[in-house]
Amino acid sequence: MNLMVCTGTGCVSNGAFQIIDALKKELIRHNLEREIQIITTGCNGFCANGPIVVVQPDDIFYQMLTVKDIPFLVEEHFLKGRPVKNLMYTPGGDQTPVPKMHDIGFFKKQRLIALANRGIINPEEIDEYIARDGYTALRKVLADMTPDTIIDEIKRSGLRGRGGGGFPTGIKWEVCKKAHGDEKYIICNADEGDPGAFMDRSIVESDPHSVLEGMIIGARAIGAKNGFIYIRNEYPLALRRINRALEQARDYGLIGENIFGTDFCFDVKVNRGAGAFVCGEETALIRSLEGKHPQPRVKPPFPAISGYDGKPTNINNVETWANIPRIINHGADWFSSIGTESSKGTKVFSLVGKVNNTGLVEVPMGITLREIIFDIGGGIKDNKAFKAVQTGGPSGGCIPEDLLDMPVDYESLTKAGCIMGSGGMIVMDEDTCMVEVARYFLSFTQDESCGKCTFCRIGTKRMLEILERITQGNGEEGDIELLETLAKNIIQGSLCALGKTAPNPVLTTIKYFRHEYEAHIREKTCPAKQCKSLITYKIREDKCIGCGLCRKNCPTQAISGEKKQVHAIDQNLCIKCGVCYDSCRFDAIEVQ
Amino acid sequence: MKLKPEDLDKISQRMKATTILREGAGSAKITVHMGTCGIAAGARDILSAFLKSIEESKADDIILTTSGCAGLCSREPMATIELRGKPPVKYVDLTKEKVERIFKEHVQGGEVVAEYALAIGSERVS
User: Which residue numbers in chain A have pLDDT < 70?
Assistant: First the structure.
């Protein structure tokens, strides 16, 4: 039996290593250490329910384990053969636990290409990757393909950049290959910075060799000898695993001089990014690699013509690279049979926010948002109503319920005013104020603006001030129109995608939730009851029984009242923290 | 060690034995029911008999695993054999000799050993 213990960052912070120690101890106690192996794997994607242990070959899925559960689990399941039901996944309340991993809705609708090895291999062992056909694509490329046939294969597959732009990967490679220059470079962009996004981190953590193999194949195609992986320093586990992967690949002669005994040479360096959002933009990233201040520059010339050190440089995102070996192995026709007319293959999304199953999902292009949120995500938390889903991180837009049946592909999302982005997907429920959401995302991009373009630097600041005014109840007639004008100018007047997309959250919330803006401005109310300046907490006389719980919990002593008498809130002292609302057991606190 | 192209297959072959189990994709899956009742009736010997047969056959795509009591404690030791694409077959009152025959005829040959079998299929689960 194999115990696949997820050691992605999510599960590790939930105590996966303590679980492993406890498992080892118990297995030894029962003399089972020879029959049962513990395998550490990368992220399963079901991060909300970690730590996770999958028992193979039976495919039994245990979740939210604690060290205390382990002695019982080992004795019951591994010694006596009785799977422990109450540690398995339960789909909402009273239904029976679902033991088989592939019967769980969260996993059932997914199709894995970039994440094909997640939860199956030990990412720190190159041999396990090789056992799953690892590096056979590289072998095929070196033995049977020329740079031109590689590029042709990638072009025919229809693969488009997974970092957000969606530019056809094969064409990018072709331009770089044809560019003049004695030296060329390959870069893997692992500078993932969107709030709530962790696709790239997870791919590097669970299958670093797939990214590396993709890069080596890319290098072969365009004729590069050196490559960089630009990865966030805030991703320590991913860093460790990619470094270990490089070490092992170098040992095996898969990077370095004379790969597979041929005359092809390619080496890779890891470069740590310091967490500036703008470094995800390719020209800024390249400047950062060169040791300069990271600011985007005018394109063209594109990096494919003049990139790192002025040499032709091909830069792709982690997920794009991870797709390459599978395309080479399974063929362009296989890949292009998945997805829609213009968007082929799959896309990895980090599904977060107010859904029941948060985590990392890989789905075929063309799946609807509804399927992702309700079938895979298991619907909205606490049975609340769905309000909007935000795709593409802070540069994306908010999509309302009536567009939920829209297929997920590059074109449809752009048409709705959103972007695919790198794949963040934040679900919001009825309690979310859309003006506040727009304000939050704009405050992020405003903060991360590098300051080069005036419109992005100052324009977003003005927009942010207006939004702050609206949420504080000081909005004026004409504010919405002013926001729209500013947004239009910022989009036009900014060089890079950061500025060009920063107004997206504001524009889409105005487009789909204009009434919320109007309520804030005209009636000075917040329909979602979230904006603190626009709400008051009151105690309902008919429901308050005078238990005193709210009085005890109030941090500012704003609540007074005798025992068994109706209490009251002093509005001058109230800071609207909502503690009274949460602590009342009789629904006697209302928000107005 | 620098790899030559053909080394990939060697590594892959060597690793198969450990990874095939996880993929659950073997040609046959043998489940020995090892609840308390099964163990008391000698399921551990049945398990090692299957293990021995698999090793002797040098097959690398047969999954041998254990699970709990199948519910029919009086007929233990029991085992369930699933060939890919076929419904599972439950065998009862197993002995080492029966195991040898079942392995040869059913697991390798694809023919159910009817006289040892209890039933084909499984209970409906909820």
Answer: 91-104
Structural domain range at position A580:
536-591
Percent of chain B, pLDDT > 90? 17
The CATH class that applies to domain B24-120 reads alpha beta
> Tens digit of pLDDT for each residue in B26-59?
678 888 887 777 788 888 899 999 999 988 888 8
pLDDT for the residue A385: 94
Confidence check: pLDDT of B125 > 60 = no
Residues A518 and A549 in one domain: no
How far is the C-alpha of B24 from the C-alpha of A120, rounded, in Å?
11
What does the alpha-carbon distance between residue A355 and residue A378 come to, in Å, rounded to a whole number?
7
A330 located within any domain? yes
> What is the domain partition of chain B in residue ranges?
24-120
Both tokens of residue A199? Answer: 């696709």
Q: Return the pLDDT at A40.
A: 86
**What residues in B contact A56, CB-CB < 8 Å?**
21-24
**Cβ of A493: how many Cβ atoms within 10 Å?**
14
CATH of the domain at A568: 3.30.70.20
Chain B residues close to A84, C-beta within 8 Å:
none
Whether residues A516 and A574 fall in one domain? no
User: For chain A, which residues lie within 8 Å of any Cβ of chain B, measuring from their own Cβ?
Assistant: 1-2, 4, 37, 39, 56-59, 80-83, 96, 120-121, 127-128, 130-136, 139, 142-143, 251-254, 258, 260-261
Which of A85, A209, A213, A252 is the mutation pick for testing B, counting most B CBs within 10 A?
A252
> Across the interface, do B24 and A254 touch by the CB < 8 Å criterion?
no
In a domain, A118, yes or no: no
Distance (Å) from the C-alpha of residue A364 to the closest C-alpha of chain B? 21
Residue B124 CB coordination number (10 Å): 5
ipTM above 0.90, yes or no: no
Burial class (CB in 10 A: 0-12, 13-18, 19+), A568: middle
Q: Are A222 and A289 contained in the same domain?
A: yes
Structure pTM?
0.80
Q: Are residues A218 and A326 in the same domain?
A: yes
From B3's Cα to the closest Cα of chain A, the distance in A is 5
